[in-house]
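User: Just a sanity check before I run the rest of the batch. Below are the C-alpha cells for the first item. I only need the designed sequence back.
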C-alpha cells in the first residue's frame, strides 16, 4: 500500500491500550510494504482477516483482543483505517 490513512489513529489507540502497540506497528509495516491487489491477497497474509462488503476488511489484533476495520482502494493502493477498538 502506498498510503495508509491515518497512522495517528493507530498511535492514539496504542497510547490508550499499550498492549496493542507492537501488534499495530507490525500491521502498519506489513501493510505499508504490501502490494495487495484484492481481498484474497490480504487473506494470504492475514488468513484470519474477515472480508466485508465495500472493500472493507476486519483485522483481529493481538489474538482477537482488538479489531480494526480498514477500507481499501486496491487500484490506488491506499488503506483507510475506519475503526479500531475492543470487542467490548
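Assistant: Here's the designed sequence for the first item:
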Amino acid at each position: 500500500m502506498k498510503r495508509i490513512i491515518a497512522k495517528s489513529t493507530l498511535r492514539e489507540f496504542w497510547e490508550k491500550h499499550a498492549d496493542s502497540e507492537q501488534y499495530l506497528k507490525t500491521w502498519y509495516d506489513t501493510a505499508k510494504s504490501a502490494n495487495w491487489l484484492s481481498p484474497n491477497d490480504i487473506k494470504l497474509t492475514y488468513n484470519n482477516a474477515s472480508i466485508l462488503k465495500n472493500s472493507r476488511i476486519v483485522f483481529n489484533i493481538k489474538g482477537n483482543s482488538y479489531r480494526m476495520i480498514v477500507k481499501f482502494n486496491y487500484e490506488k493502493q491506499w488503506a483507510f483505517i475506519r475503526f479500531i477498538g475492543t470487542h467490548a
